[in-house]
Design brief:
4 helices; alpha+beta
């Protein structure tokens, strides 16, 4: 009788712990294979990868670009535009987002809508929706917008060379769905979970 009660209590506690964890949470670092981690680490720079990845997303592709032979690297291991990497995450519906790093050569327009968010890894970053082609002042991301799936979510490269960025669509990825699928709130959650790959 005592054994049955203890076993029943243990099962109940285990069920409670499991049910309190978010059903959509995945550990981003564990989605990388050992060879993918080795490839990223071979660049000789710090690698930022999200700890939080929405359920159903997997690492689909990794692209690395080391410094070229003969290029001089600074104290951070960065050459003029390299090294850099892109990690593409994709789900079964062909929705994608990318996390990347680049050595330099930055510039360009801002977003149509923006919100400043604090991150542990990169400090304050602007989360943007769309591209402002007119050069006007971006509008704030309201609560209603933040809870509605958007097409183009991105952060401008942040950090101190290399620069780290993230977006829901990337120029070199033409195989991903262009449909709006992620809310800014979910995107912000991923951005705020960025952490150095150990």
């Amino acid at each position: 009788m005592k054994y049955t009660i203890c076993l029943s209590l243990a099962v109940s506690i285990t069920s409670l712990i499991t049910s309190t964890l978010p059903a959509h949470a995945q550990t981003g670092h564990s989605l990388l294979s050992d060879s993918q981690k080795a490839s990223l680490k071979s660049l000789g720079i710090k690698v930022a990868i999200p700890k939080y990845v929405p359920q159903g997303f997997r690492v689909a592709t990794i692209r690395t670009e080391p410094c070229r032979d003969g290029e001089r690297a600074d104290a951070n291991g960065v050459c003029r535009f390299r090294p850099g990497y892109t990690v593409l995450y994709r789900n079964a519906q062909n929705h994608c987002f990318v996390v990347n790093a680049i050595g330099g050569g930055l510039g360009g327009p801002g977003g149509q809508y923006t919100r400043l968010v604090n991150t542990k890894l990169l400090g304050s970053v602007d989360v943007n929706i769309g591209i402002d082609k007119d050069g006007g002042e971006p509008k704030p991301i309201t609560s209603a917008i933040a809870n509605t799936p958007q097409k183009k979510l991105w952060i401008f490269p942040a950090g101190n060379s290399p620069f780290y960025a993230m977006s829901t669509v990337d120029d070199w990825v033409d195989t991903c769905s262009a449909r709006a699928y992620m809310t800014p709130n979910e995107f912000i959650k991923i951005v705020q979970s960025l952490d150095w790959l150990p």
